[in-house]
Amino acid sequence: MTGFRWCMKDCYSGKALPEACMVFVAVKLVSPSSSFTHSSASGQSVMGMPRRALLCVLLLVIHRRAAGGVLYRALEEQPPNTLIGSLAADQGLPDSGHLYKLEIGTPYLRVDGKTGDIFTTEVPIDRENLKDCRNSHRGDPCFLEFEVSITDLNQNLSPRLIEGRIEVQDINDNTPQFPSPILTLYVPESTHQGTLFSIPLANDRDSGRNGVVDYALTAGPDAAAIFSLQVAEDRGEKLPQLIVLGNLDREQKDSYDLSIKVVDGGIPPRYSSALLRVIVTDANDNTPRFEKSMYEADLFENSAMGQSVLQVKAADSDIGLNGEIEYTLHQVTDPVQKLLRIDHSTGIIYVKGLVDREEVSGLKFYVVARDKGSTPKSSKVYVSINVKDQNDNAPMVEIRGIGLVTHQDGIANISEDMPIGTAVALVQVSDRDEGENAVVTCVVAGDVPFQLRPASDSPNDNKRKYFLQTTTPLDYERVKDYEVEVVAVDSGNPALSSTNSLKVQVQDVNDNSPIFSPALLEVDFAEENQLGEKVLDVVATDADSGTNSELIYSIISDSSTKGLFEINPVTGEVRARSQLDREHRDRYEFHVTASDKGIPSHRGTAVVVVRVLDRNDNDPKFMLSGYSFSVLENMPKLSPVGMVTVIDADTGQNAQVHLSVEPDNGKFVIQNGTGTILSSMSLDREKESTYTFRLKAVDNGDPPRSSYVGVTINVLDENDNAPYVTKPSNASYKCLSPSTSPESRVEKVEAEDIDAGPNAELVFSISGGNPHNLFRISPTDGEISLAKELAPRHSGLHRLVVKVSDKGKPPRHAVSLVHIYVNETLNNITLLESLVGHSLNTPLDLDIAGDPEYSHASQHSNILYGSIAGIAGVIVVIIVVVVIQHKLQKETKSGYQAGKKETKDLYAPKQGPKSSKGKKWKKGKAPKPAKPLEEDEEVEQASLQKSLNFSHDRINDSPRIHLPLNYSPGSPDLGRHYRSNSPLPSIQLQPQSPSASNKHQVVQDLPVANSFVGAGDDNSTGSDQYSDYSYKTNPTKYNHKQVGGNFLSFL
């Protein structure tokens, strides 16, 4: 069993030939009495020979039997590129440095030139249609022959020829078919039970197990009890027979229709059916019987037509027509039908056509003998005719190329430098005859340096192969060609012969390469060329002659030059296929080659350098499509504000660029060397915050090319402007009722700053005049609101010093005065305005916040009320009211009296009757000082107070308040309504104009249009309706800017 596994392993791996495996299996299947199945404990066989050694001997015998060629097996109808076998791997042949070439086997096969692998092609191998298998008998193997030559590419040796066969194995690709879809069978009504009748056979083009393996009969209820089917077997062929099981009565039923089915043994099986019609006839008792069970005969090929081959005889015991026999050929193949005929009466078989053994070596068929009864009976016999050979074919000499040597029109070309023994052709000599008639002798006729050497070890006398090889060195200069004649003679009697010739042309050796002179070619070529424009001509020479000196020019390009240049392969003229651009690449280098037409071809190489010359084909190009620069204001003249970069892809003068500003309004200039933009003036953002212009770049080409780019200069802000208050004016006031609830809005300070960004973001704060913390201001919007509830002591005028600061670094600020008059009513506007006027002349470090004598007046009033409370309270009150009212009306009518001493209590309204009048201030005594201010606030207040200088002068004895404010004509003025009836002396505000060096030192500009004067209890209106006083104004610093209207300036 160990030896069995060893052999089967080799069989499956392909190391052992299939025949060896089959023989070994056969040995294992012999009877137990065979010595091959008995061995001792030591593993020895009967004759003392080790079992494995015995098996190896057996395999060697099988191998020698198959040593005549390579044998592969393959199924038919395999798809393309199916591997059949590998010559290098299976036969131990070289797998490198050799060329495998298929000599015979097309179009069904192809061979890999390197490995010798044999593959199928697009043309399928159909076993049933192969020429050598088409007329083979059932069960005979089908072979496809092939030849492969092996040429050593490293050495100039003659090729080696490998012959082989492929056994094409059948697949189930054909369905069995009956000769007709309706089969008719005549059965006499007197037929006894158990009688058999032959049914026509079905034919299957497949073979072996894929052929017909079984028949089946299907009958109706009336016929199932009468007929059945029996399948016999003769020489491996299935024979269907109809069995009569019951009695037939023609008068009752004269025919039966049955269905017969034929099935093959393929996987999956194929099948077909036919109608079997059984016709019941009158009695015909006996069937014809042949004298022999089979007939055999020999027939020489080329026998004359009409020659008899053999006679078949059959006898029938019946009499009359039932005993007369007629002979026919049954289910014959095409060759039998074409070559033979049979006499229907005598059974003699005659030659009908030309018999050629080389086409058909044997004829096998059946002859049917049928009587002439009304219900004929028949039988058949097997006939085999062997066609014998005659020497009617002369040897055939076929000369074809081998390996790398190809033939065309009967001419072989060989180089003069080939070594002795080089094969120039494969000569195949064959004879279609057999036996001695096919033994052929082959020689080379004449005195030529060639001979025949056997190319194959195959012992096939009918087909021999030889290499036609050289015997001496060839010299092209001495003999340029040879006519080689090959003669073949067979051994027949009489002998037949044939010849074939081959013309061998000796070729010159191509031993010279083309040469370029010089090997380096340089040329100048301008860019922007036309397509196909000539660049240069290249010329090479070759010392060889003929085709070896005919040159073909080509360009070897790398990826950077591919497709840019082309060369005329005949003339060597190089042209540009594409337009060159020097800016993309200014130098190209590639190789040109000149190859001769020799085999093998030689070539020479030269280097071509193309220098691309510049043209002014590019505009100057700014690096950006637009420029935007930001620069601080107040920079000195000719300060750089930005830089641009411009390039020109050209070279030389074409790349020299000149820059200029458009329009040239003198505000900016540009340096051509650096591209730096300079300002021709000091920039002031408040005058102009953005400048826009174009830069022009012009090159020095001919003609020049130019380009433009837009430039934007954004002037950044510096904190060079202090905030200015637009509302309320310093001389305006706001009336506030003592009953006003906390958190009520009192006034709103509005201010502006002509700077930008954080420099214009304002912060509001109360820096003075709020000792009781009655008021607070929103730091963001300047809204002043009442912080807490008002008390009686808070009545009177309050002056708030409001500071407005920006967020610049360093910050700038302005100071504004906000007057708030706390009282129930506003009956004496003149008094209130005089209070405001005194406030403007009061130092800012002094608080003006309500009635300063309120505490003393309260003490006296309490004593007075206490003394007369019980007696005349009501009367005194009435008198006091009448007196006060009368006095007020008198003062209102009389106005200001010259020389009358002014009362010091100007900032508080009168509280009650004369008897309750508070204590007056002492002369020269300042009011109660306000809460100390910070140092910076003191400086600011001193600056503001310096600007509030009151002068007492009389103009036509009419006191006036002259406010020389910087308002435009038509603006309202706080003092315009003060005429001769004004209770105050004339005062004039002396503003200080800022110097030219301190142009940004403006503390406050107040439009008087936003100031208010009392016109009722809680309302304020402008004072334009009371005065037509005219005055001149000072012009503002910025005209037509965001600072609108006219302003009061405090420095």
Automatic annotation (TrEMBL):
Protein name as it appears in the record: Protocadherin 1
Compartments where found: Cell membrane
PROSITE patterns given in the database record: CADHERIN_1 (PS00232), CADHERIN_2 (PS50268)
GO MF annotation, one: calcium ion binding
Record key words, sorted: Calcium, Cell adhesion, Cell membrane, Glycoprotein, Membrane, Phosphoprotein, Repeat, Signal, Transmembrane, Transmembrane helix
PANTHER family (UniProt xref): FAT ATYPICAL CADHERIN-RELATED, PROTOCADHERIN FAT 4
Compositional bias (Basic residues): 916-928
